[in-house]
Design a protein that fits this description.
Length: 395
């Protein structure tokens, strides 16, 4: 079956067409500036990237352009849209309602809408994409895969905040966690490759957004993001954990309202805020190498926070068998992995320097054979995970 995987944001949409049998990507691309002016990027595997500037006032028009591109008689990756057997949609927030992926019926869409409050920037955009696809492909089954679903196995003591309990009862204020599709995919790859289902694994998803997850025998038992993706690690531009009182302090000093402070915490903080250089680790590494002390401080603070969470989750699981690094930084930035592991000698971890310098493989080990904990780098693939979930449900 050919599966169209869609990740729809408020003004952009990423897509891939995947052959579920061979798990090959047939084409991928994105629509940008939907509702503004519009640009379609389409790349058939093995061919050059095509960029088309074209008006796309609505998401429906954007998706129509994607469908036209993938089934184009000359450059398309499929002969006809009839080949698309299902569409898999990334949905950011499933609240407490969705502990698994689900076929998107009208009833389910209403339940997803009820979660909009919890992710006001993301969920409405995801729903617009789903509704547009349903209109254009009324006979094709659609599946929703939630960023939060994998973490619904967390015990209450891990997801409850130290706040009045009534806020949980009335408003469902609790830890949900995100990047679930990636944490699930990577922990499954580890279990499969290591040949053990009972592993205690800590997955470090270190990308522009970053989170850590404790996975015990395939189940998420704790994770660093919370009600929203702002909690936990220091990220590209997000602060991660801070003393909540800083919000009032900064609001008074800088004459900002709540929205202004939230904007600072989401968009002007993290390694970009610390370094004043960039949110991109390639820029930070280059700056640090040429002597920029704040860029080096940003890398050190980022790595130190990761190490502290690994320690916390080792305690949460009463041990750890495997630590897995994934996503843009986890897969590519050797200096971060080295710094994180430098704090974890007490776990009996020793790193293989030569292995840590490797790149470009989907799965490799960076600990020495006698290390007490195995440390691996695993390429995440959220689109493939969404494709697999989609096929499993529509079959
Ligand atoms: P992601 O959100 O997973 O796409 O990760 C994005 C981040 O990963 C970027 O901001 C970079 O800091 C980092 N990154 C991606 N590719 C590389 C690379 N080849 N070398 C170093 N860092 C990278």
């Amino acid at each position: 079956m050919k599966v169209l995987v869609v990740n729809c944001g408020s003004s952009s949409l990423k897509y891939q067409v995947i052959d579920s049998e061979s798990e090959e990507v047939l084409a991928k691309g994105l629509c940008e500036r939907i509702g503004i002016d519009g640009r379609l990027v389409y790349q058939k595997t093995g061919a050059d990237k095509e960029t088309t500037e074209a008006a796309m006032p609505t998401h429906k028009q954007a998706i129509q352009m994607v469908l036209d591109a993938i089934a184009n008689p000359n450059t398309g990756c499929i002969a006809s849209l009839k080949e698309i057997g299902a569409v898999g949609h990334r949905v950011v927030h499933g609240g407490e309602k969705f502990a698994d992926s689900v076929v998107l019926t009208e009833e389910v869409l209403k339940a997803v809408e009820d979660c909009n409050d919890l992710a006001p920037l993301h969920n409405p955009a995801n729903l617009i994409g789903i509704r547009a696809c349903k209109e254009l492909m009324p006979d094709v089954p659609m599946v929703g895969v939630f960023d939060t679903a994998f973490h619904q196995t967390m015990p209450e003591r891990a997801y409850i905040y130290g706040l009045p309990y009534e806020y949980y009862e009335k408003y469902k204020v609790r830890r949900y966690g995100f990047h679930g599709t990636s944490h699930s995919f990577v922990s499954k790859q580890v279990a499969k490759t290591e040949g053990r289902q009972d592993l205690k694994t800590i997955v470090c998803h270190l990308g522009n957004g970053a989170s850590i997850c404790a996975v015990n025998a395939g189940k998420s038992v704790d994770t660093s993001m919370g009600l929203t993706p702002l909690e936990g690690l220091i990220m590209g531009t997000r602060s991660g954990d801070i003393d909540p009182s800083i919000m009032e302090f900064i609001a008074k000093k800088e004459n900002l309202d709540i929205a202004g402070v939230m904007n600072v915490l989401n968009k002007r903080s993290g390694v970009e805020g610390i370094s004043g250089v960039s949110s991109d680790f390639r820029d930070l590494e280059a700056a640090a190498e040429s002597g920029n002390e704040r860029a080096l401080l940003a890398i050190e603070a980022f790595s130190y926070r990761v190490a502290k969470y690994v320690g916390a989750y080792t305690a949460a699981m009463n041990g750890v068998d495997v630590i897995a690094f994934t996503a843009g930084i986890g897969e590519n930035t050797a200096i971060v992995r080295r710094q994180v592991l430098s704090y974890l000698g007490y776990l009996g971890i020793t790193m293989d320097e030569a292995a840590n310098a490797k790149r470009g493989e989907d799965y490799f080990t960076i600990s020495t054979p006698d290390s007490k904990v195995k440390v691996v780098v695993v390429a995440t693939n959220e689109e493939l995970a969404i494709c697999r979930e989609t096929v499993a449900l529509v079959r």
